[in-house]
Design goal:
The chain has 4 helices and 15 strands. The protein has 266 residues and is of the alpha+beta class. It has a single domain (12-254), classed as Creatinase/methionine aminopeptidase superfamily (Creatine Amidinohydrolase, Alpha-Beta Complex), CATH 3.90.230. The protein binds magnesium ion (MG).
Length: 266
């Protein structure tokens, strides 16, 4: 039985505002990613991002969301998502996932990237390349008339081909004035029938990909999600506008190397 989901459609003027929020979220994420260095603490990265967001007139969307204590999410290695900046020092070999939401003029841009702190292992390099490309596999489906299930399923299919797993307990989401709007955007093909995408929908697509098992646990802080086997995980996210033609990225950053350019093969 198909669930009836009312999915928000943004007007042209709302999309214009979301482009601005997305641009700021992108700038802050790229600057924060460049700020990641061995010896810096995750609290320092959080504070750096918060200052940039404030300078641009924005609000860190995640701060206070259901009581979240950080300005951004910063998660290292086995931490999948929702890590809180603190005294942990970044070290060579770390995979540092940064997720930044910016609210500007009431509209939200949401994006994430996993930063490699060199030298990283060949498996970590492979994980990053595959996770980033899995995001773009999904983005390519963000077109009017495509079934949501096909977009979602494309992530898991791609990831499993490389021997990695997707996290199933956390999902992407619609985004707009609210951080989490309809529909849910899992990184696997959901059971049952799903709606067709419509132009004007805005989706935060965010593959969370593990090198080991897909299962996750929550740490005692109530927020930080870690892989159950404590093996590394990666997270890439963009805010994407569904259109009649090519998908439009409302958040943007340069692509890193494609898997084949890195010699990553099936
Ligand atoms: Mg998100």
């Amino acid at each position: 039985m198909a669930k009836r989901i009312k999915m928000p459609i943004k007007s042209e003027s709302e999309i214009r505002k979301m482009r601005v929020a997305g641009e700021v979220a992108s700038e802050v994420l790229q600057a924060s990613a460049a700020f990641v260095e061995p010896g810096r603490t995750t609290a320092e990265v959080d504070a750096f991002a918060a200052e940039l967001i404030a300078e641009r007139g924005g609000i860190p969307t995640f701060f206070g969301y259901r009581g979240f204590p950080g300005n951004i999410c910063i998660s290292i290695n086995e931490e999948v998502v929702h890590g809180i900046g603190g005294s942990r020092k970044i070290q060579p070999g770390d995979l540092v996932s940064i997720d930044i939401g910016v609210t500007l003029g009431g509209w939200i841009g949401d994006n994430a990237v996993t930063v490699a702190v060199d030298p990283i292992s060949p498996e970590s390099k492979r994980l990053l390349a595959v996770t980033e490309q899995s995001l773009f596999e999904a983005i390519d489906h963000a077109r009017e008339g495509v079934r949501l299930a096909d977009l979602c399923g494309s992530v898991e299919t791609y990831v499993n081909n490389y021997g990695f797993t997707v996290v199933r307990q956390l999902v992407g989401h619609g985004v707009g004035k609210e951080l989490h709007e309809k529909p849910e955007v899992p990184n696997f093909r959901p059971a049952g029938s799903t709606p067709k995408l419509k132009a004007g929908m805005v989706l935060a697509i965010e593959p969370m990909v593990n090198t080991g098992v897909g299962d996750v646990d929550w740490l005692d802080d109530g927020w930080t999600v870690v892989t159950s086997d404590r093996k590394p995980s990666a997270h890439f996210e963009h805010t994407v506008l569904v259109t009649n033609g090519d998908p439009e990225l409302l958040t943007w950053r340069p692509r890193t190397a494609l898997p084949e350019q890195l010699g990553v093969t099936l």
